[in-house]
Amino acid sequence: MTLSDNVNGGKLDVAMNNSVWNVTSNSNLDTLALSHSTVDFASHGSTAGTFATLNVENLS
User: Taxonomically, which superkingdom (predicted)?
Assistant: First the structure.
């Protein structure tokens, strides 16, 4: 399955600086740039068997 932001030709780039991303569902990114930042999968929930997937083409 391919998802698009329907903006910028469907390209989705995220740059985080001194930030926390509490991942709550599946996400797809073209580029993820992290500077003193955290991607927190633990915030998704404490129910056993729940998870989220983050697909990133380019990570920096």
Answer: Bacteria
